[in-house]
Amino acid sequence: MLNNQSIAEMTLQDLESLINRIVDEKINQINRAKHNNIEQLELVNKIHRFQEELKQKYGVFPNLSELREDIDNYNPFVEFDGLFKDDPLFDDFVEEMAKNRRELDTEIGENGE
Q: How far is CA 4 from CA 15, 16, 46, in A?
């Protein structure tokens, strides 16, 4: 029936069968899309119900969009920003690190030539 033959070689019955298969596949795609949308809607509704249950049980519960914003705005590089701002020894530590780095750079420069 439907194989690798060209459309020009197909009989009217073969063409009708091909068109029916294409239409059926499209209908199936539409039905799957509708079903997926229904499943997504059901999932969102379940999440909202669960969130309401948590609010009732534990009191204040953060909004999921607020949690999402917190995650999106999180920057691990600034997590400890200002940790040593009141430490009087930190500036000395940084200067000692810089001094050690300069000494290592000098040693590497002498050995590398």
A: 13, 16, 48
* Domains contained in the chain, number: 2
- Domain housing 108: 82-113
Q: Are residues 55 and 86 in the same domain?
A: no
Distance of alpha carbon 102 from alpha carbon 105, whole angstroms: 5
Same domain, 89 and 51: no
**Which tens digits make up the pLDDT trace of 13-67?**
887 888 888 888 888 888 787 777 777 788 888 888 887 887 888 777 666 666 6
* Separation of alpha carbons 93 and 80, rounded Å: 17
CA–CA dist 113, 111 (Å, integer): 6
Residue 80 pLDDT greater than 60, yes or no: yes
What pTM does this model have? 0.31
